[in-house]
Design goal:
Elements: H1 25-52, H2 60-79, H3 88-108, H4 121-130, H5 133-150, H6 161-164, H7 174-251, H8 257-285, H9 288-291, E1 293-296, H10 297-311, E2 316-320, E3 327-330, H11 332-347, E4 352-359, E5 363-369, H12 377-381, H13 397-408, E6 412-417, E7 423-430, H14 433-436
Parallel strand pairs: 2-4
Antiparallel strand pairs: 1-3, 4-5, 5-7, 6-7
Length: 438
């Protein structure tokens, strides 16, 4: 039983993490460092209040808040030494801890009168730079709510009372209200614009990764093309020799009918090999622009399928194509891309390979259906990306070359498992308005 050509583990230079930004351990350590510096600042303030303002205010609540935040910070630092990945939710939880812990500290040290109240802006900036926008708005809302409550709910702290100019229970004066509006304005601007800038940076990073991946794939394609050109040149002589020998055997008198039929089949296969090598050499010399021709998609599919069937005489096939198919641009490389997908389907051991065409106003879909073991989801996800390593079941080079060809036409390839077993490979090509009308 033959193994599926699809199932070879094709590894690439990028991983899933390159396509989706997420918090890292380094980001978490930086957040904890910021928290530690802020706690040191507040500890200095409490030390100053203890030395120079003895008996003015209860420092027990503030000291307890600092100690609790410090303990959480130390525990979090220990967590960064573990191998657990840092997810969005964990990073969000750390920022909420910052907001809650700072709120408790501000409550015991004068509320909105405390000049350190502006620290609420730090969790908002960090969230905007690292987390998705929904989490950023959650942190921003929590910070704004905490600041608003501390305008009215707090314990007076004599050290900061002159800056507030208000007693506990009095309405906030103009200065405090102005600070609150400034915070509101700053949070709004930071949350909106920093999130946008961070999104742009992440998108550019993803584009840079895609460009590097495309460069690696193009290098591999160039290497394969060079190898193919050299191979075509080297195979010319032995093919000519075998052709001459087969011709001489057919001209002899000693062959029985069975052997003569085998020689005729071998003669046809050798002629097909020589034609393929000649076409390969011609393709390497001509640009794709000069080779493209316009023809009905159904005719292109039929001609490609018939040519492929000559190379795979033991595989049953069927073409399902409605009449009046749209007209498309084709060349030899597109035909080869379709043949690669047909070869993949035949290599699964499927009793029959079906090539089905359908289209809409925007695109033409060529679907290759088989009843083999099915496609490996990992291969389907990484189709067309550079091949770093593969096993004996398939190098993945054919899929990579096919994807590169289809992308030149602005199309795409999709591999999906079929209900009841097997694989559906869909080659999609865009259509213009005139193409769609046939």
């Amino acid at each position: 039983m033959r193994r599926s050509h699809y199932n070879g583990p094709v590894e690439t230079a990028t991983t899933a993490g390159a396509h989706r930004y997420s918090p890292s351990v380094d980001n978490l350590r930086n957040l904890l460092l910021i928290r530690g510096i802020a706690l040191l600042g507040q500890t200095g303030v409490l030390g100053y209040a203890t030395l120079y303002h003895r008996g003015e205010g209860d420092l027990a609540g503030a000291a307890a808040s600092i100690a609790l935040l410090a303990a959480v910070t130390v525990a979090s630092l220990w967590r960064t030494t573990r191998q657990w990945p840092v997810e969005d939710r964990e990073f969000l939880a750390q920022l909420i801890i910052d907001v809650l812990g700072w709120s408790a500290l501000m409550y015991f040290t004068g509320g909105a009168n405390n000049p350190f109240i502006s620290y609420y802006i730090v969790p908002v900036v960090v969230a905007a730079a690292v987390l998705p926008w929904r989490h950023t708005w959650l942190v921003a809302g929590a910070s704004l709510l905490a600041y608003s409550l501390l305008l009215y709910v707090y314990r007076p702290f004599p050290l900061f009372a002159p800056h507030g100019g208000m007693d506990h229970g009095d309405g906030a004066n103009l200065h405090i209200v102005g600070m609150w509006f400034n915070f509101l304005f700053s949070v709004g601007l930071i949350t909106y614009f920093v999130v946008r800038m961070a999104t742009i940076l992440r998108r550019r990073e993803a584009e840079a990764v895609a460009r590097r991946e495309d460069g690696l794939r193009n290098d591999q394609i160039l290497a394969v093309a060079s190898l193919a050109a050299g191979t075509a040149h080297e195979l010319g002589t032995p093919l000519s020799t075998m052709t001459v020998l087969v011709d001489e055997m057919l001209e002899g008198e000693g062959l029985d009918e069975g052997a003569r039929a085998d020689c005729r089949l071998l003669q046809e296969q050798l002629a097909q090999c020589r034609a393929t090598l000649s076409e390969l050499s011609r393709t390497a010399q001509l640009s794709s622009a000069t080779e493209r021709v316009r023809e009905p998609a159904g005719e292109f599919a039929r001609r490609t399928l018939e040519r492929w069937s000559v190379r795979r005489p033991g595989t049953a096939y069927r073409l399902d194509c409605p009449p009046d198919s749209p007209v498309i641009d084709t060349d030899t490389t597109l035909a080869q891309a379709l043949e690669n997908l047909l070869n993949n389907a035949a290599d699964t051991g499927s009793e029959e390979v079906v090539l089905a065409l359908d289209w809409d106003a925007r695109a033409l879909h060529l679907r290759i259906l088989d009843r083999g073991p099915g496609v490996d989801p990992a291969v389907a996800e990484r189709i067309g990306r550079p091949v770093i390593r593969a096993d004996r079941s398939g190098l993945g080079i054919g899929l990579m070359l096919t994807q590169a060809t289809v992308e030149r036409y602005g199309g795409s390839i999709e591999l999906r498992a079929r209900e009841g077993g097997g694989t559906r490979a869909t080659l999609t090509l865009p259509l213009t308005g005139g193409d769609a009308d046939g």
